[in-house]
Amino acid sequence: MKKLLTFILIVMLACLFLDKIGATDMHMHFNGDDIDGPLEWLFGLVFAGGGLLIGAIALVFAAVVTGVVLAGVGMVVVAVVAFCVLLALALSTPVLLPLLIPAAIVWWLVSRNRKQARTQTHQQSL
Predict the structure, then answer these.
(1) Burial class (CB in 10 A: 0-12, 13-18, 19+), 40
(2) What is 9-70 written as a DSSP string?
(3) Is the pLDDT assigned to residue 23 strictly greater than 60?
(4) 49 and 64 in contact (C-beta within 8 Å)?
(5) Quick one: average pLDDT of 55-82?
(6) Half-sphere exposure of 23 (CA within 13 A, CB side)
(7) Radius of gyration over alpha carbons of the chain, in Å?
(8) Measured between alpha carbons, how far is 90 from 97 in angstroms, rounded to an integer?
(9) Pick from 16, 71, 67, 74: which is nearest to 45 by CA?
(10) Who's near 23: CB < 8 A, 6+ residues apart?
(11) Average pLDDT score, the chain
């Protein structure tokens, strides 16, 4: 099925391409002169393809520049947020000091009990 679908797609694209190549109503004006003759369609396709190539290069360049700019702005935003968090912590330390003293005492008691339990478990295993 895949081979049949691929073959049908290639045939359709070939038909479309041949329709554009064989069209007799294609006219090209270059510097005010009408270009005609057996290779008129070739010149039209080459110049149209060149325009598409220039457009694709411009889009890629714009995407790269946008990515670099937004990455730089993102880094600045992260740095500003980190600075604001540090500033808020520094300013709130005197207010939180009465809460930190009981928390430190509880932490010390819990860690002391853990050390004692560890030493008892170690002595029992020997």
Answers:
(1) middle
(2) HHHHHHHHHHHHHS-S---EEETTEEE-STTHHHHHHHHHHHHHHHHHHHHHHHHHHHHHHH
(3) no
(4) no
(5) 90
(6) 14
(7) 37
(8) 11
(9) 16
(10) 41
(11) 80
Using one digit for the tens of pLDDT, what is the confidence trace for 24-67? Answer: 556 667 777 776 666 666 676 777 777 888 888 999 999 999 98
Residue 83 and residue 79: Cα distance in Å, rounded? 6
Q: Judge whether 34 and 28 are in contact, CB under 8 Å.
A: yes
Tokens 């393809």 sit on residue: 49
- Check the CA dihedral 58-63-69-72 and report its sign: negative
In the DSSP assignment, the letter for residue 98 is H
Write the CB contacts of 47 (distance below 8 Å, at least 6 apart in sequence): 28, 30
d(CA 85, CA 89): 6
Residue appearing with tokens 């295993």? 125
Q: 118 by DSSP, 3-state: which? A: helix
If you ran DSSP here, which 8-state letter would residue 5 be given? H
